[in-house]
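User: I'm putting together a teaching handout on how sequence relates to shape, and I'd like one worked example. Could you take Tripartite tricarboxylate transporter substrate binding protein from Cupriavidus respiraculi, show the sequence you're using, and then write out its predicted structure as tokens right after it?

Assistant: Happy to. First the sequence, then the structure tokens directly below it.
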Amino acid sequence: MDRRQFLVAAGASATAAIAPQAWAQAPEWPGRAIRMVVAYPPGGGTDVVARLFADYLGKAIGQSVVVENKPGGATIPATQDVIRAKPDGHTLLVTLGSSATSGAHINRVPYDPLTDLTALAEIGRAPVVFVANKDAPYSSLKELIAYSKANPTKPIHSASYGPGTSSHFGPLLFNRLAGTHLEPVLYKGSAPATQDLVGGVVPLMIDGLTTGVPLYQAGKTKVLATTIPERSDLAPGAPTFRELGFPEMERLSGYFALFGPKDMPKATTDAVSVAARKVLADPTYHQRLAGIGVLPPKAITPEAFAAQIKTDHARWGQFIKDIGFKIEGQ
């Protein structure tokens, strides 16, 4: 048994050992089917991860987990639905962590994501890749930095599929870390941004693994770096930002977050957390995530996850303030 297998087995054993105790402390949970509200439309990345997690969670707790999509409105309708629910653990929210961190700074939201929700668990992490057009005059991050610094009055355009996304903030964050002169070009969606990247209209783009890696494997782009902490078969042969000296870029990885309403009793919060950790310790869950380009997250306590959300909220808030990003209409 290698180290990774040992850690997975140990985590599963430990979770199994504490689960009965945790559920005994919250006998009302799970007392019936769980309603899981997803803040994005069916078939999208968040929906796929949510349904996968719901399937494993249902088996772990012996109850049905019914997924209900409530997309649109910058995730506000879905979030408000859960905020207004009874805090008994039977109504949960799956959304991108960014909706509570950077998104809360760029959209007008009628609630405080740090106090009006109970942070429960991270259920998956979606790395991104920094790719260049195949004909770009740089084939590595080091060459890109050198090229940009040699041409300080000539910004290098990077396609973005929307304001406030990793593809928008990523180039600006890299500028601060590397002293480059990258300039996001905003598109109305991923498809036109990718089309112009491949066509050579723009030379750079920060993209998700599921779309970025196939283009690289097809020889249409060059991968300069990924936000995966260690080299992985998810992006074969691609270097990581960490190994290249820019671990801060890992902030761009999206994560899928599980929340409940505020004021959930601690016993219920702990019971939901234990069930989530049981899912996260399952190696088959890891394999299913890998199949859709998602990494399994570290299983942490609700308190630690809430602290992570709070830290990310503050860091992105300061970054957004520093770059002068304004909410539309303000």
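A couple of points you could highlight for students: The mean pLDDT is 90. Residues 149 and 179 are 7 Å apart (CA to CA).
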